Amino acid sequence: MSMLKIKSSTLQWLGQAMLLLFWPAIAVWASEPKSSSPHGTNIFAPASTPAKSIADLSVIVLVITGIIFVVVFSLLVYAVVKFRKRVTDADREPPQVYGSTQIELAWTIIPILIVVVLFLTTARVIHAVQDAPEPASALDVIAIGHQYWWEFRYPKLGIVTANELHIPVSDLSHPAPTFLQLLSADTDHSFWVPELAGKTDLIPNHPNRMWMDPQRTGVFLGQCAQYCGTQHAKMLLRVSVDETDDFAAWVRAQQKPVVQDTDRVAGRRVFESNACMNCHAVGGTQANGRFGPDLTHLMSRATIAAGAAENTHDNLRLWIQNPSAIKPGSLMPAMKLSDADLDAVVSYMETLH
Amino acid sequence: MSSNVITVPIGQTEARPWVDELHQWLTTVDHKRLGILYIVSSLLFLVIGGVEALIIRVQLMHSHNNFVSPQVFNQMFTMHGTTMIFFVAMPVLFGFANYLVPLMIGARDMAFPRLNAFSFWLSFLGGLLLYFSFFGGSGLYGAGSAPDVGWWSYAPLGARAFSRGHSSDYWTLALLVSGFGSIGTAINIIATILCLRCPGMKLNRMPLLVWMNFVMAGMVLLAITPLSAAQIMLLIDRYLGGHFFDTQAGGSAVLWMHFFWIFGHPEVYVLIIPCFSFMSEIIPVFSRKPIFGYPVMVAATVCIAFVSMSVWAHHMFTIGMNSYANSFFTLTTMAVGVPTGIKIFNWIGTMWGGRIQFKMPMLFSIAFLFQFLIAGLTGIMMAASPFDWQLSLSYFVVAHFHYVIVGGILFALFAAFYYWYPKMTGRMLSERLGKWHFWLFLIGFHLTFDVMHIPGVLGMPRRIYTYEPGRGWDTLNFIITIGAFIQALAILVFVANLIISYFKGARAGNDPWDAWTLEWSISSPPPAYNFASVPTVASRRPLWDLKHPEDPDSRYE
Questions:
Q1: Interface size between A and B, measured as CB pairs under 8 A
Q2: d(CA A288, CA A290)
Q3: Which of A154, A206, B133, B352 is the most buried (most CB within 10 A)?
């Protein structure tokens, strides 16, 4: 073992060199979608304290495991090369060695010490992330997982929205973290926006909590990470981190009642006389279903169908006409509307700013 | 000890009508034939599970691919996982245990030959039940369909409200039935090892393969029972109005997770410990040295068995356990790395100072050591629960456990195939085809599973049938798919080798590897009665003693 000790500085250097080799690869892959608005989903590009604590811990763990890898790998390669059978060996058997208590003790105790160090480092981060107290300035949001979309409720602000979470940017001097209460309406889901925080599951009858305090603005992507049924893949998630003023403006806009456009009464009638209103709510009307996303401010969202399609006129029409064309297995039924009714209901949707 | 063999006159065993031969195989209670039945049936399921994997990989080749529908994709990953764990990995390892344990301890057969046959046919029936779901899955609702709830069938997805028809029931019954088979086999292995060792074979003289399979059997008893209990509860939920896991009636989804993973994690060790046992037999023989630190190897195995019973909730770091539970399971999971590390060091210690021969079994063993090292280290990463909050449920986890199961278990199994095939058939496997198999599989494996870690780090969740373009996942997934096809090609070479060598391979003789355990003292394939006279052993390497009377092991033990 003394040999290992002498070499430890060299090995450390090797470990870091290996990490450096690994790093650019990740960085290159991550930078692929260049500067086009949304942030990526790289766990090593954290923009919020929980994700950052995790990334820092990850680097420590990667370095330690990297060193272990280099040491054991070198021993293995050395043994394989040095002790291969040579032509000159003839048929003699090598010396028969049965073991060594000292060596066994060495390679028991050293790993135990490594485990202790790793565990203590990890336990600190577990505590820091999980047991963080909720400051009074925090924003509360209830996130409810549904087969295959996200419901977001802001209980103190009286806002209900879907799939696109808006939260204020936070900075370390004036922290404005967001605390999410995670619930599920049906099966298990998992809330994962890699650059903001680690994932936490949404489990029926088992409320969970998570938090984030993003320090950069922009749209952060994520998606459901726990298999939840047929359309698990298209249960996408966007978190829009807004400047404080922009967030306040967004809140005011969401709190406004819907303006009833008298030109689009026909569409509203189609909406309310079909099964649409059994599942969807539009604030200030009789439609108050909760099975599907709240549509009160539908047009304020960039996407429909939990991020599966952009919120354009054509997509909206296609989605209402035949949801399976965008998301096969989605629980929204095709309503089999006539073309006229379809156009009417789409134009009604487009008034819901 | 004795190795005389009663010669059976040629002609007496040959030229039997095939119906008789088939009848013999179907009604056999011989541990060797049952072992081969286990192995052959699991190879069949390996090919089926492999095709399912290829379908998954083609679908994920690029973003927004439409090769299969989401429903079919979800069925494929459910069936792939269930098949590979329950109907490939477990049976093939039971097959080797069945074949080798009695031979290595100088026994005539397993302790309960009829139970042995019963267990095999239960396992096989389980596999058939699972695949019958393709035809009968939806019952009266229409055409059949396979289960699509994932191989964990997390509650409440497996409840009636979310899994209509009968596909989940076939899944439940398949696991229940094959689970009873596994329990039977475990009891059988334990009883055989405790009661049927030949004279002189004390517990501390048993080959490590026997020791490790003994530990494995003990773990099967502890791990399969909660799984079976959970399946019965699920059936009660689905058909008798129970509410164990029915969240809509106040049941607990988390309870199912605990039941499943207190089976699921020991299960990983149920699979890997027999592979450790292959390594512990093969590496010494091809290094020409005894295993380094035999007592420590046994102790480490038992230690792994105990510690691995308390790590299950590391599969549940994201479910919102409190920080104390997360810390506890972080500690236990990291701790299990210590005895596992000891094993790796002992294998390297065995090679150290030896004269390593690079025959096929040893090539696969060296690849095993290298890959299992990496698999263990990515395991340590995910043991750090905050890191796991990012990595869990992502493709990083998929890469990690395939590194264990393919890079570790499958490579060890290939080593075992090349090592014991001569004993089972009397013919050597072709080294030339073997090299093709080895290098193709090695390249395919690393192309697929090394690369697969990266999309996980870049935020790609598992079990998605498609993904959005522009996330940086496309190129990586394309490489992964190419690697999968190279592996499939390698498996074809392997199967061809198994078939061609059966007819054309070089004759093996009793002891082609100049090995040291009892199975090599008798003819290849061994006669039905195994040993003509009961052997007596005086050390851990009875054949070494026989070959080196001037320097026997028994002098040092």
A1: 288
A2: 6
A3: B133
